[in-house]
Amino acid sequence: MIIVSIVGPGIKDALAQIARSSRYADLFEFRLDLIAEPFMSQLFAAARKGVIATCRPEYEGGAFEGSEEDRLDILDTASFLGAQYVDIEFAAGGTFLQEFLRRKKNSRLIVSHHQFDNKVKSVAALYTRMRKTGADVLKFAYRADDASDMRHAIKFLQLARRENQKAIAIAMGEYGEASRVLYKKFGGWATFASVDGAIEAAPGQIPMREMKTLYRADKVSPKTKVFGVVGNPLKQSKGIYLHNPLFQRVKKDAVYCRLQAKNIAGFMKHIAPILNGFSVTIPHKQAMMKFLDRLDPTAKAIGAVNTVVRRRGRLIGTNTDASGALDAIESKMRVSGKMMLVLGAGGAARAIAYEAQRRGATVFLANRTERKAKQLARELAPRGLAVNFIANAKLGTQHFDIIANATSLGMTPHVNISPLPKSMLKKRVVFDAVYNPPMTKFLRDAKSVGAEVIPGTEMYINQAALQSALYVGKKPSIALMKKIINIS
Ligand code: NAP
User: Fold this and answer.
1) Could you tell me the distance, in angstroms and rounded to a whole number, from the CA of residue 257 to the centre of ligand 1?
2) Residue 101 pLDDT
3) Distance between CA 271 and CA 264 in Å, rounded?
4) What pLDDT, on a 0 to 100 scale, did the predictor assign at position 380?
5) Catalytic positions, please?
6) How far is residue 3's CA from residue 53's CA, in Å, rounded to a whole number?
7) Which residue's CA lies nearest to atom 36 of ligand 1?
8) pLDDT number for residue 201
């Protein structure tokens, strides 16, 4: 079940939120502490679905400032007016609970515990104490500071499932986002979603429309295969918008989530075991390698992993960035026998330079920090392969057929910078790994002097298509991928 929190603050706002959500919500939670004048009978009638009444006190992160006696009266009224569920904080104590249970009409009881840090001592002990209240539903929400913190929510749900106890467990904040999507994977009873991105009742809530149509969270089951992207930050990551629709197209019972992680060791210990595969992005592409059972030759040669798949229980790392970029470039010009300049010495430059020389180009590497380009050229050319270093001062003296920008120069928000002057781009094939924005200043300049240009979105789509092939066993068409993320 997907519960949408109605937060007001005005009664008109609350009614508008109900109207906007009724297509997707299975239950409405009315935050009676946040709605300024909560005319309950009007709100409950408008809901036309199950209702949870919540009046969160300040000591539990809510906004209700009155006495416990007043709060009890409000919840009692909600129950009298037909709220199917009433949420009472575990911290309110036994007396409050007993008094509510003595007075309650037909409402079922949700006992909730909120913690605004990730210092969860013992999930098992907490679960046992909450279970003793005899509540119909146990709800545990706490703040996650890393992806691995989601392990507490998973454990809470697993304990509840063993006893057929209805439970909700949420790791709040962006590091815990996947716990909201995967609740049914671990037997959870419900999850919370926001009306839209702008109105959230708790940090990290996902808009209900995404929850239902993109993630299809209510269709997830313990058998659903789980994929995702691990990186930090992940706000700009487009993977969820590509892989989830692709799973739907091929009718694969799978879901793809954002797994924002600072500590890769913790992620590998606590979260990777529930995953069937995952994409790896900045800053973990290199650090990931030492946690895997095997690296394929491309990942090994490049020294970076952007995709991990589980095969017979073993985690295998590969790199689809390299082919993704070169397939994009070769849609305009075969690189074999050509002179190619790669700007940059980071992960993207490493992948592009490796694959270009493997496909027969003579590659030159240049970088702001020249020492790094020299070092990379040395690392990539152990057997006399064609990767050379070129000093920035010498760039104008050498002819290149193909120029690839693999620095982050020109990326949003610094969109008016280009790594090379127009004079060097005339009639060349020019590729930019930067995909945000798709048409960078570098590409606009190149186009204006007659160059063939290839935006980073082409690389992005190609590498994601190769990942999808590994996740679902079949490569999707590039046209379909472009349609899904709306690029012509
Ligand atoms: P990275 O490892 O952090 O490397 C960044 C590179 O950019 C370094 O060579 C750095 O030079 C250079 N750089 C940064 N700021 C600069 C500046 N102001 N002037 C000159 N050089 C500058 O990053 P990465 O993973 O290689 O990614 C690079 C770009 O490729 C990013 O924009 C990323 O979004 C994009 N990318 C795209 C795709 C795709 O699918 N299209 C895939 C991967 C990456 P120093 O060594 O001197 O610091």
Assistant:
1) 25
2) 86
3) 10
4) 87
5) 114, 139, 285, 321
6) 12
7) 433
8) 67
Concatenated DSSP letters for 408-426? STT-TT-TT--SS-GGGTT
Give me the pLDDT at residue 103, please: 82
How far is the CA of 288 from the CAs of 25, 140, 282, 301, in angstroms?
38, 31, 11, 15
The finding on whether 239 has its CB within 6 A of some atom of ligand 1 is: no
Q: Would you state the pLDDT for residue 247?
A: 96
| 237 CB within 6 A, ligand 1 | no
**List of the chain residues with pLDDT < 50:** none
Residue reference for tokens 């694969």: 252
Mutate to test the pocket of ligand 1, among 408, 439, 478 (most ligand atoms within 8 A of CB): 408
Query: Is the CB of 317 within 6 Å of ligand 1?
Result: no
The SS3 of residue 110 is strand
CA of 407 to the centre of ligand 1 (A): 3
Distance 410 CA to ligand 1 centre (A): 10
Q: Which amino acid is at 251?
A: K
Q: How far is Cα 207 from Cα 85, in angstroms, rounded to an integer?
A: 22
Q: How far apart are CA 240 and CA 255, in angstroms?
A: 9
Q: Is 349 in the pocket of ligand 1 (CB under 6 A)?
A: yes
| DSSP letter assigned to residue 371 | H
Tell me which of 321, 352, 407 to substitute to probe ligand 1's pocket, judged by most ligand atoms within 8 Å of the beta carbon: 407
| Token pair belonging to 320 | 């689809």
Q: What is the pLDDT of residue 198?
A: 67
List pLDDT tens digits, range 410-446.
Answer: 999 999 999 999 999 998 999 999 999 999 999 999 9
* Residue 351 near residue 318 (C-beta atoms within 8 A): no
What pLDDT score was predicted for residue 172? 96
C-alpha dihedral, 54 to 57 to 60 to 61, nearest 10° = 90
pLDDT at site 38:
79
10 Å CB burial of residue 404 (0-12, 13-18, 19+) is buried
d(CA 184, CA 222): 7
Instruction: Look up tokens 């209900």; give the residue.
Output: 208
Residues 124, 20: Cα–Cα separation, whole Å: 38
- Compute, in degrees rounded to 10, the torsion defined by CA atoms 54, 58, 63, 64: 70
Q: What pLDDT does residue 202 have?
A: 74
What was the pLDDT predicted at 382?
65
User: Which secondary structure element, helix H or strand E, spans residue 128, and what is its range?
Assistant: helix 123-131
pTM, two decimals, is: 0.93
Q: What are phi and psi of 169, to 5 degrees?
A: -140, 125
| Strand order across the 225-231 sheet | 254-260, 225-231, 277-280, 307-311, 314-318, 294-295
